[in-house]
Amino acid sequence: MTILVTGAAGYLGNQTVKKLVALGHPVRAMVRNRAKARLRLRDVADQIDIVEGDVTNRDSLAPAMRGVSAVIHYVAIAMEKRGQTYDGVNFQGTVNVLDAAEAAGVKRFINMSQNGARADLPYRFLASKGRAQAYVAASNLQWTALRPSAIFGPQDEFFNTFARLLKVTPLVFPLIGGGVAEFQPVSVYDVVEAVIRSLDDDGAIGKELALGGPEVLTLGEIERRIIEAMNTWRLLLPTPVALLRPAVKIMEATLPGSPVSASLLELLAVPNTVPDNALVNHFGMQPIPFAGEHIAYLRDNTIGDTMAKFLHNATVN
Ligand SMILES: NC(=O)c1ccc[n+]([C@@H]2O[C@H](COP(=O)([O-])OP(=O)(O)OC[C@H]3O[C@@H](n4cnc5c(N)ncnc54)[C@H](OP(=O)(O)O)[C@@H]3O)[C@@H](O)[C@H]2O)c1
């Protein structure tokens, strides 16, 4: 039976679709723009069913669900742009996808949540993801929620954004919030593996599984590892988040592909660690470290790519 992947042209979606195809699963990829998706999924585009659907438009979702046994739901936005809101896409969009799945008789639902997501938080992004998961958890579907810390790997947004900002800031770089916030960066390959294993894992049904890498790293350590991976050098200057806020607001207002938003900046101060790491404790995996050859891809960022991304919101890497 077919597995539906929402957000299939996105970072995790793209990797997941390719892996499912390699494993021989029939895949339907739900995307907003078929032509763009064919380009991003070009290696497997002829082996999958690509359908257009928008999670904010309930009517567009029913056709995507026909003949589907499981849904992997990835669609979410990290920044509010072009009229898309956290509430509309992350929360109501998940409600719409789940309702469409239930109406079509789909049994299994894998929801990509987020470490730290909780409905009652003051951070609007995390709250929207938390409310979405609360709706999934209250459903009658056989659901599993995965809650990764920050995900790294070629084409990631979070760590590549630091690498791009480094490219355009010579000599000195801000040690954001003093660099003390803790993260547990997790590899995209491990996250996708956990998603795919969950599909056939009855022990994962009804569970929220947090996913992290093998190490807890402060933001300062992460910045240093990125600088080292890029074979470069910067003086790290401790900078309170409040001091960066005006600069971020200007970037948001002027750059079509602004690398950061005010609401994401706040999250850099929120701990993003995974005390009970399901990659190890549930899936029995050995997580890939944020180190060495695994982060060598950060070196691929060029000034040209960086400007294309910031000024035109181009897809790079
Ligand atoms: N990346 C991380 O570090 C991280 C960490 C923890 C959790 N997560 C979660 O993992 C999931 C996937 O993240 P990602 O990094 O793969 O994000 P991504 O690359 O931004 O992919 C999200 C996809 O959602 C699609 N989308 C946006 N609005 C839509 C709408 N209204 N209707 C239909 N599709 C829409 C986008 O389509 P277009 O291509 O058309 O824009 C994009 O392909 C998200 O739920 C995220 O919260 C990510």
Any idea what the CATH superfamily of the largest domain is called? NAD(P)-binding Rossmann-like Domain
User: Could you name the CATH topology of the largest domain?
Assistant: Rossmann fold
Determine Rg (CA atoms, Å). Answer: 19 Å
- Give the helices and strands as they follow along the chain: EHEHEHEHEHEEHEEEHEEHEHHHH
Q: How far apart are the first and last residues' alpha carbons, in Å?
A: 33 Å
Give the helix proportion (percent range): 25-40%
What are the low-pLDDT stretches, counting only 5+ consecutive residues below 50? none
Q: In CATH terms, what is the architecture of the largest domain?
A: 3-Layer(aba) Sandwich
**Bound ligand species:** NADP nicotinamide-adenine-dinucleotide phosphate
Number of helices: 12
How many strand units?
13
